[in-house]
């Protein structure tokens, strides 16, 4: 999953399934490092999640995350 596309794809899917949409964004939030970096890509290799931080860090996460926050009724846990 790529940071450049997956959060946006998750938000776009929200009209069909909010759980899937939230998972598409939260996986990147879950693997944020203490220095603030998000993984640029997350691999699933034989069921093992492997975040990789060596990819370009653009700004594709905040807007779809905020839009999803509005769609889930401003859930503070999110």
Biggest sheet: strands, sense, closure?
2 strands, antiparallel
Strand arrangement, major sheet? 1-2
Percentage of residues assigned to helices: 25-40%
Alpha carbon gyration radius: 12 Å
Note the overall shape. Answer: globular
- SSE order, as H and E? HHEEH
Average pLDDT confidence is: 87
Helix/strand-derived category reads: alpha+beta
Number of helices: 3
Describe it for me?
The protein is an alpha+beta fold and 78 residues long. The protein has one domain. It has helices at residues 6-13, 18-30, 62-71; strands spanning 41-45, 48-52. The protein has a two-stranded antiparallel ribbon. A hairpin with a 2-residue loop joins strand 1 (41-45) and strand 2.
Task: Map the helices and strands.
Elements: H1 6-13, H2 18-30, E1 41-45, E2 48-52, H3 62-71
Helix pairs in contact: 1-2, 1-3, 2-3
Keywords:
40% helix, alpha+beta, 78 residues, two-stranded antiparallel sheet, 3 helices
Compose a concise summary of this entry.
It is globular, with a radius of gyration of 12 Å. The protein has helices spanning 6-13, 18-30, 62-71; strands at 41-45, 48-52.
